[in-house]
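Translate structure to sequence.
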Protein backbone atom coordinates (compact mmCIF):
# COMPACT_ATOMS: atom_id res chain seq x y z
CA UNK A 1 0.00 0.00 0.00
CA UNK A 2 1.29 3.46 -0.93
CA UNK A 3 2.35 5.73 1.91
CA UNK A 4 -0.17 8.54 2.68
CA UNK A 5 0.74 11.91 1.15
CA UNK A 6 0.94 15.00 3.40
CA UNK A 7 -1.48 17.72 2.22
CA UNK A 8 1.28 20.31 1.96
CA UNK A 9 3.73 21.75 -0.52
CA UNK A 10 6.81 22.42 1.60
CA UNK A 11 9.97 24.43 0.93
CA UNK A 12 13.66 24.16 1.69
CA UNK A 13 16.24 26.56 3.09
CA UNK A 14 19.27 26.19 0.80
CA UNK A 15 20.47 24.93 -2.60
CA UNK A 16 20.52 21.31 -1.42
CA UNK A 17 18.63 19.31 1.16
CA UNK A 18 19.94 19.37 4.70
CA UNK A 19 20.10 16.12 6.67
CA UNK A 20 17.16 17.28 8.79
CA UNK A 21 15.08 18.07 5.72
CA UNK A 22 15.85 14.64 4.29
CA UNK A 23 14.65 12.97 7.48
CA UNK A 24 11.43 15.00 7.52
CA UNK A 25 10.61 14.34 3.87
CA UNK A 26 11.35 10.63 4.19
CA UNK A 27 9.14 10.39 7.28
CA UNK A 28 6.18 12.54 6.26
CA UNK A 29 6.04 12.18 2.45
CA UNK A 30 4.98 15.72 1.46
CA UNK A 31 2.87 16.40 -1.61
CA UNK A 32 5.82 18.28 -3.04
CA UNK A 33 8.40 21.04 -2.74
CA UNK A 34 8.19 24.62 -4.00
CA UNK A 35 11.52 26.10 -5.08
CA UNK A 36 12.54 29.75 -4.82
CA UNK A 37 15.47 31.86 -6.00
CA UNK A 38 17.39 31.09 -2.81
CA UNK A 39 17.35 27.40 -3.83
CA UNK A 40 18.86 27.98 -7.29
CA UNK A 41 22.44 28.88 -8.13
CA UNK A 42 22.88 27.15 -11.53
CA UNK A 43 21.12 24.85 -13.95
CA UNK A 44 23.42 21.93 -13.07
CA UNK A 45 22.83 22.44 -9.34
CA UNK A 46 19.06 22.65 -9.89
CA UNK A 47 19.01 19.38 -11.83
CA UNK A 48 20.85 17.69 -8.97
CA UNK A 49 18.48 19.20 -6.42
CA UNK A 50 15.29 18.01 -8.14
CA UNK A 51 16.84 14.56 -8.55
CA UNK A 52 17.71 14.51 -4.85
CA UNK A 53 14.16 15.55 -3.87
CA UNK A 54 12.69 12.66 -5.88
CA UNK A 55 15.12 10.17 -4.37
CA UNK A 56 14.48 11.32 -0.79
CA UNK A 57 10.69 11.38 -1.17
CA UNK A 58 10.80 8.05 -3.00
CA UNK A 59 8.31 9.16 -5.66
CA UNK A 60 9.11 10.00 -9.27
CA UNK A 61 5.87 11.96 -9.44
CA UNK A 62 6.47 14.11 -6.34
CA UNK A 63 5.42 17.66 -7.20
CA UNK A 64 8.38 19.99 -7.72
CA UNK A 65 7.01 23.47 -8.24
CA UNK A 66 8.16 26.95 -9.10
CA UNK A 67 6.78 30.42 -9.91
CA UNK A 68 7.86 31.06 -13.49
CA UNK A 69 5.29 33.51 -14.82
CA UNK A 70 7.62 35.95 -16.58
CA UNK A 71 8.24 39.60 -15.79
CA UNK A 72 8.79 40.33 -12.11
CA UNK A 73 7.94 36.76 -11.05
CA UNK A 74 10.51 34.35 -12.38
CA UNK A 75 12.78 32.14 -10.31
CA UNK A 76 14.82 30.86 -13.27
CA UNK A 77 16.86 33.83 -14.41
CA UNK A 78 19.54 35.06 -16.73
CA UNK A 79 22.18 34.22 -17.78
CA UNK A 80 21.47 30.47 -17.85
CA UNK A 81 17.76 30.86 -18.53
CA UNK A 82 15.80 32.93 -21.03
CA UNK A 83 14.15 36.26 -20.28
CA UNK A 84 10.35 36.15 -20.27
CA UNK A 85 7.91 39.00 -20.71
CA UNK A 86 5.39 39.97 -18.06
CA UNK A 87 1.84 38.90 -18.85
CA UNK A 88 0.75 42.55 -19.07
CA UNK A 89 3.30 43.08 -21.86
CA UNK A 90 2.17 39.95 -23.67
CA UNK A 91 -1.37 41.28 -23.59
CA UNK A 92 -0.25 44.64 -25.01
CA UNK A 93 1.34 43.06 -28.09
CA UNK A 94 -2.16 42.83 -29.59
CA UNK A 95 -2.14 46.60 -30.15
CA UNK A 96 0.79 46.28 -32.58
CA UNK A 97 0.50 42.79 -34.03
CA UNK A 98 -3.14 41.71 -33.66
CA UNK A 99 -4.67 39.01 -31.51
CA UNK A 100 -3.53 35.95 -33.48
CA UNK A 101 0.11 36.96 -33.10
CA UNK A 102 -0.43 37.64 -29.40
CA UNK A 103 -2.01 34.21 -29.01
CA UNK A 104 1.02 32.64 -30.70
CA UNK A 105 3.33 34.61 -28.39
CA UNK A 106 1.44 33.23 -25.37
CA UNK A 107 1.82 29.74 -26.85
CA UNK A 108 5.56 30.24 -27.34
CA UNK A 109 5.93 31.80 -23.87
CA UNK A 110 4.54 28.67 -22.23
CA UNK A 111 6.40 26.31 -24.56
CA UNK A 112 9.80 27.86 -23.83
CA UNK A 113 9.15 27.97 -20.08
CA UNK A 114 8.03 24.33 -20.20
CA UNK A 115 11.32 23.40 -21.84
CA UNK A 116 13.29 25.16 -19.10
CA UNK A 117 11.29 23.41 -16.39
CA UNK A 118 11.51 20.02 -18.08
CA UNK A 119 15.29 20.27 -18.41
CA UNK A 120 15.63 20.97 -14.69
CA UNK A 121 13.25 18.29 -13.41
CA UNK A 122 10.42 20.67 -12.43
CA UNK A 123 6.89 19.45 -13.17
CA UNK A 124 4.56 22.17 -11.77
CA UNK A 125 4.34 25.87 -12.60
CA UNK A 126 2.29 28.34 -10.54
CA UNK A 127 1.05 30.01 -13.72
CA UNK A 128 -0.72 31.54 -15.54
CA UNK A 129 -2.32 34.42 -13.61
CA UNK A 130 -5.92 34.88 -14.73
CA UNK A 131 -6.59 37.96 -12.62
CA UNK A 132 -7.98 41.12 -14.22
CA UNK A 133 -6.04 44.40 -13.95
CA UNK A 134 -7.91 47.45 -12.67
CA UNK A 135 -6.68 50.98 -11.93
CA UNK A 136 -6.71 50.10 -8.23
CA UNK A 137 -4.92 46.76 -8.60
CA UNK A 138 -1.97 46.44 -6.23
CA UNK A 139 1.46 46.87 -7.85
CA UNK A 140 2.40 43.39 -6.65
CA UNK A 141 -0.11 41.96 -9.13
CA UNK A 142 -0.87 44.45 -11.92
CA UNK A 143 1.99 43.55 -14.30
CA UNK A 144 1.18 39.86 -13.83
CA UNK A 145 -2.26 40.21 -15.45
CA UNK A 146 -2.96 40.02 -19.20
CA UNK A 147 -4.90 43.28 -18.90
CA UNK A 148 -8.45 44.42 -18.19
CA UNK A 149 -10.23 42.37 -20.88
CA UNK A 150 -11.60 39.21 -19.25
CA UNK A 151 -12.05 37.41 -22.59
CA UNK A 152 -8.46 38.08 -23.60
CA UNK A 153 -7.24 36.84 -20.22
CA UNK A 154 -9.39 33.73 -20.57
CA UNK A 155 -8.18 32.82 -24.07
CA UNK A 156 -4.49 33.60 -23.55
CA UNK A 157 -4.65 31.73 -20.26
CA UNK A 158 -6.21 28.69 -21.92
CA UNK A 159 -3.47 28.67 -24.55
CA UNK A 160 -0.78 28.57 -21.86
CA UNK A 161 -2.63 25.95 -19.82
CA UNK A 162 -2.95 23.63 -22.79
CA UNK A 163 0.70 24.06 -23.81
CA UNK A 164 1.92 23.26 -20.31
CA UNK A 165 -0.25 20.15 -20.13
CA UNK A 166 0.85 18.93 -23.56
CA UNK A 167 4.47 19.46 -22.46
CA UNK A 168 4.12 17.35 -19.31
CA UNK A 169 4.02 20.32 -16.91
CA UNK A 170 1.10 20.92 -14.54
CA UNK A 171 -0.14 24.54 -14.70
CA UNK A 172 -1.75 26.11 -11.64
CA UNK A 173 -4.14 28.98 -12.40
CA UNK A 174 -4.25 31.83 -9.92
CA UNK A 175 -5.54 33.59 -7.90
CA UNK A 176 -9.02 32.11 -7.62
CA UNK A 177 -11.63 33.54 -7.85
CA UNK A 178 -9.91 36.78 -8.93
CA UNK A 179 -7.49 39.08 -7.11
CA UNK A 180 -7.52 42.11 -9.40
CA UNK A 181 -9.72 44.41 -7.32
CA UNK A 182 -7.41 44.15 -4.30
CA UNK A 183 -5.63 47.45 -3.73
CA UNK A 184 -3.24 46.17 -1.05
CA UNK A 185 -0.53 43.51 -1.11
CA UNK A 186 -1.64 40.29 0.68
CA UNK A 187 1.98 39.64 1.62
CA UNK A 188 1.56 42.60 3.97
CA UNK A 189 -2.15 42.83 4.82
CA UNK A 190 -5.55 41.32 4.07
CA UNK A 191 -7.38 42.83 1.05
CA UNK A 192 -11.13 43.28 1.42
CA UNK A 193 -13.36 43.33 -1.66
CA UNK A 194 -16.56 45.34 -1.28
CA UNK A 195 -18.00 44.56 -4.74
CA UNK A 196 -21.13 42.43 -5.10
CA UNK A 197 -20.99 38.97 -6.65
CA UNK A 198 -22.77 40.26 -9.73
CA UNK A 199 -20.04 42.91 -10.17
CA UNK A 200 -17.36 40.24 -9.71
CA UNK A 201 -18.60 38.07 -12.59
CA UNK A 202 -16.01 39.74 -14.83
CA UNK A 203 -13.26 38.63 -12.45
CA UNK A 204 -14.65 35.09 -12.28
CA UNK A 205 -14.94 34.69 -16.06
CA UNK A 206 -11.33 33.71 -16.94
CA UNK A 207 -11.44 31.03 -14.22
CA UNK A 208 -14.84 29.77 -15.38
CA UNK A 209 -13.56 29.62 -18.96
CA UNK A 210 -10.57 27.58 -17.73
CA UNK A 211 -12.37 25.48 -15.15
CA UNK A 212 -10.88 22.40 -16.84
CA UNK A 213 -7.42 23.37 -15.50
CA UNK A 214 -5.86 20.60 -13.40
CA UNK A 215 -4.84 22.86 -10.51
CA UNK A 216 -5.71 26.25 -9.07
CA UNK A 217 -4.48 28.53 -6.29
CA UNK A 218 -6.74 30.47 -3.94
CA UNK A 219 -6.63 34.21 -3.28
CA UNK A 220 -6.06 35.68 0.17
CA UNK A 221 -8.91 38.16 -0.19
CA UNK A 222 -12.13 38.73 1.72
CA UNK A 223 -15.20 38.90 -0.52
CA UNK A 224 -17.69 40.50 1.82
CA UNK A 225 -20.73 39.48 -0.22
CA UNK A 226 -20.03 35.82 0.64
CA UNK A 227 -17.97 35.82 3.85
CA UNK A 228 -17.13 39.11 5.55
CA UNK A 229 -14.79 37.49 8.07
CA UNK A 230 -12.54 34.94 6.35
CA UNK A 231 -10.30 35.22 3.26
CA UNK A 232 -11.34 32.97 0.38
CA UNK A 233 -8.43 30.63 1.17
CA UNK A 234 -9.98 29.91 4.58
CA UNK A 235 -13.65 30.35 3.73
CA UNK A 236 -15.75 27.23 3.15
CA UNK A 237 -18.57 29.48 1.98
CA UNK A 238 -16.42 31.18 -0.67
CA UNK A 239 -14.79 27.97 -1.89
CA UNK A 240 -18.09 26.07 -2.07
CA UNK A 241 -20.21 28.88 -3.51
CA UNK A 242 -17.75 30.56 -5.89
CA UNK A 243 -14.79 28.33 -6.76
CA UNK A 244 -16.50 24.93 -6.75
CA UNK A 245 -19.97 26.37 -7.41
CA UNK A 246 -20.26 29.35 -9.75
CA UNK A 247 -16.89 28.82 -11.44
CA UNK A 248 -17.32 25.04 -11.49
CA UNK A 249 -13.64 24.28 -10.86
CA UNK A 250 -13.09 20.59 -10.13
CA UNK A 251 -9.29 20.50 -10.14
CA UNK A 252 -6.74 20.34 -7.32
CA UNK A 253 -7.03 23.44 -5.14
CA UNK A 254 -3.99 24.70 -3.27
CA UNK A 255 -3.70 27.70 -0.97
CA UNK A 256 -1.55 30.67 -1.79
CA UNK A 257 1.43 30.91 0.57
CA UNK A 258 0.27 30.54 4.17
CA UNK A 259 3.21 32.76 5.19
CA UNK A 260 1.56 35.94 3.97
CA UNK A 261 0.42 38.49 6.52
CA UNK A 262 -3.07 38.41 5.02
CA UNK A 263 -3.57 35.32 7.21
CA UNK A 264 -3.32 35.16 11.00
CA UNK A 265 -2.31 32.50 13.51
CA UNK A 266 0.72 30.23 13.54
CA UNK A 267 1.54 28.08 10.50
CA UNK A 268 -0.37 25.07 11.81
CA UNK A 269 -3.49 27.11 12.56
CA UNK A 270 -3.29 28.72 9.15
CA UNK A 271 -2.86 25.40 7.37
CA UNK A 272 -5.71 23.66 9.17
CA UNK A 273 -8.06 26.59 8.48
CA UNK A 274 -7.26 26.34 4.74
CA UNK A 275 -7.84 22.58 4.65
CA UNK A 276 -11.03 22.80 6.71
CA UNK A 277 -12.37 25.37 4.23
CA UNK A 278 -11.88 23.02 1.29
CA UNK A 279 -8.34 23.45 -0.04
CA UNK A 280 -6.80 20.14 -1.09
CA UNK A 281 -3.37 21.23 0.15
CA UNK A 282 -1.48 24.20 1.54
CA UNK A 283 1.62 25.97 0.31
CA UNK A 284 4.35 26.75 2.89
CA UNK A 285 7.19 28.94 1.58
CA UNK A 286 9.60 30.10 4.30
CA UNK A 287 11.77 26.98 4.55
CA UNK A 288 12.12 27.24 8.33
CA UNK A 289 12.97 23.81 9.75
CA UNK A 290 11.07 24.51 12.99
CA UNK A 291 7.89 25.53 11.18
CA UNK A 292 8.24 22.74 8.62
CA UNK A 293 8.48 20.19 11.41
CA UNK A 294 5.40 21.62 13.17
CA UNK A 295 3.46 21.54 9.92
CA UNK A 296 4.49 17.96 9.15
CA UNK A 297 3.50 16.81 12.64
CA UNK A 298 0.05 18.41 12.53
CA UNK A 299 -1.03 18.57 8.90
CA UNK A 300 -3.40 15.82 7.69
CA UNK A 301 -2.79 13.66 4.64
CA UNK A 302 -4.62 14.06 1.33
CA UNK A 303 -8.26 12.99 1.36
CA UNK A 304 -9.63 10.43 -1.08
CA UNK A 305 -11.17 13.23 -3.18
CA UNK A 306 -7.85 15.07 -3.26
CA UNK A 307 -6.04 11.89 -4.32
CA UNK A 308 -8.42 11.51 -7.26
CA UNK A 309 -7.65 15.08 -8.34
CA UNK A 310 -3.92 14.44 -7.84
CA UNK A 311 -4.09 11.32 -10.05
CA UNK A 312 -5.27 13.48 -12.95
CA UNK A 313 -2.24 15.71 -12.45
CA UNK A 314 0.08 12.72 -12.40
CA UNK A 315 -1.33 11.66 -15.78
CA UNK A 316 -0.04 14.96 -17.20
CA UNK A 317 3.52 13.89 -16.36
CA UNK A 318 3.16 11.02 -18.83
CA UNK A 319 2.94 13.45 -21.74
CA UNK A 320 6.17 13.28 -23.72
CA UNK A 321 8.11 16.50 -24.16
CA UNK A 322 8.37 17.45 -27.84
CA UNK A 323 11.73 17.66 -29.56
CA UNK A 324 11.20 20.68 -31.81
CA UNK A 325 13.14 23.70 -33.06
CA UNK A 326 13.16 25.78 -29.88
CA UNK A 327 15.63 28.28 -31.34
CA UNK A 328 13.14 29.22 -34.02
CA UNK A 329 10.38 29.53 -31.41
CA UNK A 330 12.66 31.67 -29.25
CA UNK A 331 13.36 34.01 -32.19
CA UNK A 332 9.66 34.35 -33.01
CA UNK A 333 8.89 35.10 -29.37
CA UNK A 334 11.63 37.74 -29.23
CA UNK A 335 10.37 39.45 -32.41
CA UNK A 336 6.93 39.94 -30.87
CA UNK A 337 7.92 40.74 -27.27
CA UNK A 338 10.95 42.88 -28.08
CA UNK A 339 13.66 43.60 -25.54
CA UNK A 340 12.85 42.22 -22.10
CA UNK A 341 14.42 43.71 -19.00
CA UNK A 342 16.74 41.43 -17.12
CA UNK A 343 15.38 40.25 -13.81
CA UNK A 344 15.59 42.75 -10.98
CA UNK A 345 15.56 41.12 -7.55
CA UNK A 346 14.47 44.26 -5.68
CA UNK A 347 11.00 42.82 -5.21
CA UNK A 348 10.50 39.19 -4.37
CA UNK A 349 7.67 39.45 -1.88
CA UNK A 350 8.02 36.02 -0.30
CA UNK A 351 11.76 36.35 0.16
CA UNK A 352 11.38 39.90 1.46
CA UNK A 353 9.06 38.65 4.18
CA UNK A 354 11.43 35.82 5.06
CA UNK A 355 14.50 38.06 5.20
CA UNK A 356 12.65 40.57 7.36
CA UNK A 357 11.97 37.63 9.68
CA UNK A 358 8.28 38.42 9.74
CA UNK A 359 6.73 35.51 11.57
CA UNK A 360 3.08 34.45 11.39
CA UNK A 361 1.13 36.41 13.96
CA UNK A 362 -0.44 34.62 16.86
CA UNK A 363 -4.18 35.04 17.38
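Result:
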Amino acid sequence: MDKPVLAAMLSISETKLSDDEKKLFEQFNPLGITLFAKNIESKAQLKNLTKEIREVCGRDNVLIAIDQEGGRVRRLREPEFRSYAAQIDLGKTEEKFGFETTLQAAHNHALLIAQDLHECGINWNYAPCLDIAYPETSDVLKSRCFGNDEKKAAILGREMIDVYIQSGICPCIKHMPGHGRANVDPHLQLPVIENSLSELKKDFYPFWFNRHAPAGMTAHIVIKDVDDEHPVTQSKAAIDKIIRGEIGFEGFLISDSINMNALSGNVVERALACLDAGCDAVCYCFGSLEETYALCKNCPVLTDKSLIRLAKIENIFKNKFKDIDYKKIENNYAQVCGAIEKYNDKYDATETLRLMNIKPQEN
